[in-house]
Amino acid sequence: MENKTLFTIYNEKEVEISISEIFDHNKFNRLRAVTYSIDSSFCNSYLKQFKKTELIVGIQDDKVQQRTLSENEIALRSVIETSKLLNSNFSSTLLESFSRTLQEKVCESQFSVLVPVAKTIHTKLYLMDNEETGETRIVIGSANLSNQAFSNNSNQFELIEIRDNSELFDSYSRYFDEKLRFHLHLWKLKELNFQIFLVFMRIFRIE
Predict the structure, then answer these.
(1) What global pTM score does this model have?
(2) How far is residue 193's CA from residue 101's CA, in Å, rounded to a whole number?
(3) Long-range contacts made by residues 64-70, C-beta under 8 angstroms, separation at least 24?
(4) H, E, C per residue of 175-195
(5) What is the pLDDT along the chain (207 residues), one digit of tens a residue?
(6) Under a CB-based contact definition with an 8 Å cutoff, are residues 97 and 39 in contact?
(7) Cα–Cα dist 153/61, whole Å
(8) Which of these, 196, 37, 185, lies nearest to 112 by C-alpha position?
(9) Which pLDDT score is estimated for 2?
(10) 42: helix, coil or strand?
(11) What DSSP string describes 116-136?
(12) Strand pairing partners for 56?
């Protein structure tokens, strides 16, 4: 335990739990998340199976969000910029780094990204629920949505607390829906034509 860099409390007990167990898409079908910064590979690995996701990325400096792009991703960026379908470097870079599954969910408005326009949001809060079963989960602490933050072998220490079916869920939901939304710009690709999206996929050479 001494070498572990992620300290986790689950329902008032110290535990070791995997990332896939924390973000359990089999138990929960909706995710509302607030993270200061984002690792797209984390989203591709753990968030793509949720039926509905709303993701708030709290940092305003889009340079922090830049990722090294492959040749195919650079080609996709060129198509995006030429078509002028997106209105920010942050948006295009994030879309390029998403898996095909997540890109499709963005196009179908099943995966939304919200960014602050006036104030930085430093909160790290992850709310999961299942509309059919009524099950809820709160994850709160210091960890951003990144493989490094949720790793047990990192160069930084993190702490999270997980609460299932807590009375606090409604309070945190109001914080997300009412408090934070006032400072946000919703990035959705409603105007993204699916035929153009298929062109993006051909650039990636994805079957």
Answers:
(1) 0.73
(2) 16
(3) 64/37, 65/37, 65/38, 65/90, 65/93, 65/94, 66/93, 67/40, 67/93, 67/97, 69/93, 69/96, 69/97
(4) HHHHHHHHHEEEECCCCCCHH
(5) 467 899 999 999 999 999 999 999 999 999 999 999 888 889 889 998 999 999 888 875 544 444 433 444 544 554 444 443 344 445 556 667 777 777 777 777 778 877 776 678 899 999 999 999 999 999 999 999 999 999 988 889 999 999 999 999 999 999 999 888 776 655 443 334 444 444 444 544 444
(6) no
(7) 27
(8) 185
(9) 60
(10) helix
(11) ESSS-----EEEEE-TTT--E
(12) 34, 114
Number of H helices, E strands in the chain: 7, 9
- Name the token pair of 204: 């990636």
Q: Cα 163 to chain center, whole Å?
A: 19
Q: In the chain, at which residue ranges do the beta strands (DSSP E only) sit?
A: 6-10, 13-15, 30-35, 52-57, 111-116, 125-129, 136-141, 158-164, 184-187
Q: What whole-number distance in Å separates Cα of residue 150 and Cα of residue 26?
A: 19
Q: Indicate the residue type of 96.
A: E
What Cα–Cα distance (Å) separates residue 183 from each residue in 34, 86, 116, 176? 13, 20, 5, 11
